[in-house]
User: Fold this.
Amino acid sequence: MEGLKTVFETEKIKFAELTELFIPEYLRSVKEDNVASLLGISEEEAEEDEIYWIRMNIEKKAPVFPMIEKKTGEFIGSIELMDVHDSEGEISITIIEKMRDKGYGSDAVSAIVEYGMTELKLNRIILSVARDNPRAIHVYEKCGFREYGRTEEDVLMEIM
Assistant:
């Protein structure tokens, strides 16, 4: 992608600054993941919500990073640190379907933890993952996260 500013990177992934250039990629991801039906809203509403979310995060300079595969320049997905306050943040990651099961998840999670701890001076990073997603739980454990609680639906994990 032209005009891409890399904030940090790993051997496989460039983590870019969020700009409106990524709107088409995010909208494609929303459509592929059937976000509208999951939320019980129209596709148009889901797209409007996504554009609003992107623009708000750009304005806030939030730690949201589109991920680009270095080898091909292809959009992989997005990772962010949400609710950053009191030396703590929460990870959220989305990888587009065709890029799953290729090792990008663990690479991205390790990189955002390093970024959060080093650049943002966080002491603790948390996340929640669906209890019925053992593959993701394994990835987070591999990256150093440990369970600290459970809800009916989720496993709550942290790294310090």
